[in-house]
Amino acid sequence: MTATFQVRRCEVPHDPLLSDSPWDYADSFDAVLTEPDDHTPLEWLNAAIGDGASLPGFVPEVHRRVLRFRLDADDGRSPTGLRGWRVLTASDDVVQLEADGPLMRANIIARRQTPTRKTLSTYLFYRQPRAAGVIWLFIRPLHQRVAMHLMNRAASRLTTDSVAAVARH
Predict the structure, then answer these.
(1) Count of domains for the chain
(2) How far is CA 57 from CA 26, 49, 61, in A?
(3) CA-CA distance, 121 to 56, in Å (whole number)?
């Protein structure tokens, strides 16, 4: 049997890692798999992003120059391709990344909800609500397309790897 998947936008979950902090914007996408998958959320992020070179080239520039995240402190040892994003939590079931700047703070939380459902959620906390809201109005459609693309990439790579691993045994 060949594993398949569906990536879709889903309801934004309440996440206990945010400790009831109200967000100004949030979205969430999930990958629903036909077969269980035991990859960690960090492995999913790495399958989606790789070393960052496979990200559309404008993404790091948008993070740094438009959203004004302070990412220059990265020492090059980031466990994901999102250079400069801090890893706040990493376990077998969840990984939480954070970037901060004068306009807003962003959290990306990837979770293994079940063995057949993985989620990727973005939460924004505006520091300058008016300016951040206007900028996000233009960035949001791009962000959503990139998030869907990355979830599809990870699901495609990992379900293919899973099928290949099963076929070899």
Answers:
(1) 1
(2) 24, 12, 7
(3) 19
Q: Answer yes or no: is 39 within a domain.
A: yes
Give how far Cα 141 sits from Cα of 113, 138, 147, Å. 25, 7, 10
Please give the single-letter amino acid code of residue 133.
Answer: G
State the helix-helix crossing angle for 129-168 and 41-49, rounded to 10 degrees.
Answer: 100
Global pTM exceeds 0.85: yes
CATH number at 28 reads: 3.30.530
More confident call, 126 vs 15: 126
Both tokens of 28, joined, read 């969430």
Domain annotation covers residue 118: yes
Distance of CA 3 to the CA centre of its chain: 22
